[in-house]
Amino acid sequence: xxxVSVIGARPQxxxxxxxxxxxxxxxxxxxxxxxxxxxxxxxxxFFDELQIAPPDYNLGVGSESHAVQTAMMLERIxxxxxxxxxxxxxxxxxxNSTLAxxxxxxxxxxxxxxxxxxxxxxxxxxxxxINRVLTxxxxxxxxxxxxxxxxxxxxxxxxxxxxxxxxxxxxxxLHFSRIAEQKTNPLSKFRLQPKEYLLATVxxxxxxxxxxxxxxxxxxFLNSGETILFPVHPRTRKFLQMYGLEAQVQNSSSLVxxxxxxxxxxxxxxxxxxxxxxxxxxxxxxxxxxGVPCITLRxxxxxxxxxxxxxxxxxxxxxxxxxxxxxxxxxxxPRRFSYGDGNASGKIVKILENP
Length: 355
Known about the structure:
single chain, 355 residues, alpha/beta, Rossmann fold, 17 helices
């Protein structure tokens, strides 16, 4: 079987790593990198660390508006698919690369398999939500990480080709955390002690592109009284400079700034953090898997199990809520491990072979 895997952003590299390893043991995989994330800190380091084969194609799309970026991807992906003639196109998650890969394939009658299907935040202002909904509508095989995702698809009338397989990011966490322990020591690098620091990431447009939101988040960090490690996403750094907040964060003795860190370092930083503050979907889930309290800088989440089980709290960009959660949010119930058994990749390969 010949499979084209379309990836383009940091979370997709992580999701693709364990599945690519399983696919390549039995089938031919063509990796198509759209170039949506093109900075070495957001792209090449992940291919190196995760031992993903170099992309067979790199479309080099780069940073553009949603419409321009998606249109460029569509045109270039279609050319690759017409040349390669795969049996199936595999797309991951909810980025513009996801939607472009699915649309390009379905228009020329190539089956589409969607990994991480059925997630919903119910916020149509998020581009990711539109990408998820549309991709699920046109996919032939929908690989769901949770029973909640299966149920949400059923409510939308989507039941054919739906499979509950668990979460490929859990596969990745189990495999790569063992490698990380042997290869890196980020706590020593940043002079941190286990459970004596918070870990923060901010990158979503609702937080970075709105001056009052980014300012409220940064002020909460600065006023928390905690040591906070803050790897700064390139778009966040741009807006910190634009809004005149860069000097504040750089002059803080408690806010430890860094460039984006690699996946292996991030896994260990998450594991040893006292709490995690983030607007990332993947980090919410990884925090849950590690048993680390998560404070989500959004008003909704697609990973509802983390909230329902009491390990994640939604605070948006409200400074008072952020500070209250930093000081008072402490989960008091066990996790149910809602994201499968760590073998989602093997299950997906078997279904692809025999849907």
